[in-house]
Amino acid sequence: MTSAPSPSRIVVVDALPAATVERLRALLPPGFTLEAPATRDLADLHALLAGADFLISGQREVDAALLRAAPKARLLHKWGVGVDNFDLDAARAQGIAVARTTGSNAVPVAEYALALTLALLRNLASAHARLSQGEWRGLNAARPALLLSGKTVGIVGFGAIGQTLARLLAGFGCRILYNKTRPLPAAEEAAKGVAYASLDTILAEADVVSLHCPLTPQTRGLIDAAALRRMKPTAILVNVARGGVVVESDLVEALREGVILGAAMDVYETEPVPPDHPLLRLDNVVVTPHIAALSADTFEPTVRRMFANIARHAAGEPIPETDRVG
After folding, report:
1. Rounded to whole angstroms, how far apart are CA atoms 158 and 161?
2. Does the N-terminal peptide bond of residue 144 adopt cis geometry, omega within 30 degrees of 0?
3. Among all residues, which ones are annotated catalytic?
4. pTM of the prediction?
5. How far apart are the first and last CA of the chain?
6. pLDDT tens sequence across 8-66
7. CA–CA distance, 152 with 44 (Å, rounded to integer)
8. Cβ contact 96:67 at 8 Å
9. Are 133 and 252 in contact (CB under 8 A)?
10. What is the side-by-side order of every strand in the sheet holding 262-265?
11. DSSP state, 322?
């Protein structure tokens, strides 16, 4: 009698709460098991990697050393879109395919960027903090509350997230400029109500500069001291892309000196962000811990799509071209 084949093992390299692991297991296709470390300790992770057939990572760095600890791995899947935390050369050298869920977080991240923009313009975080401390104040003379309606918004990076943000902004009557490697056809720009502009034009004219570009050698340090000085002193910067796109030391100096009005950040050069980071001490900043993509509404469809890609690869079937990397 032939025994049933052993199930394929999926390991999520990010530390996850037990409840999240159980939610993931409930969505597994037949023939797979799933494990994840309970802490960020490398020893906990390495104990799981040796027998892993498939790897999933959201935010954790997947470097050559981590991949070597998983000699059986056949596929590395991003839980999301940006693969800048993957050593793609090391994966390729080890014969590990790479995939992602392109566009799956477009709506939650775009909504979050809009929420951060409104929170910063209307001083929501500082108002909440003051009232929580028993202080009843209306106007803040140092930083007046501003409307988003009618403002010029510059979207740097115009993929699925940037285009979704543009659609959400349409209801605010904003003038929307965008920048990407290749401009859209004129008819598509007209349909979306946007206009292509150079980065210099966006920095000079936008009241809100919202970053949605991937982290690449070309975009690393894109927003530095010189770029910040080209922005209007009444403008704000919103970053839900990747921390490395902004030179944080330059941003801190610009915020302290009033070069720009404020910034809203969900991503940082180093994550988790150090508790003594100066960005966390400024009153013209809204900061959150890299949670823009998290939404209970999109958890199940994103995970099902990710597991479907893994199941296809396990069966020797091609992963859809939109989700393949390289």
Report:
1. 7
2. no
3. 242, 271, 290
4. 0.87
5. 42
6. 999 999 999 999 999 999 999 999 999 999 888 888 898 899 999 999 999 899 999 99
7. 48
8. yes
9. no
10. 194-196, 175-179, 152-156, 208-211, 236-239, 262-265, 285-287
11. G
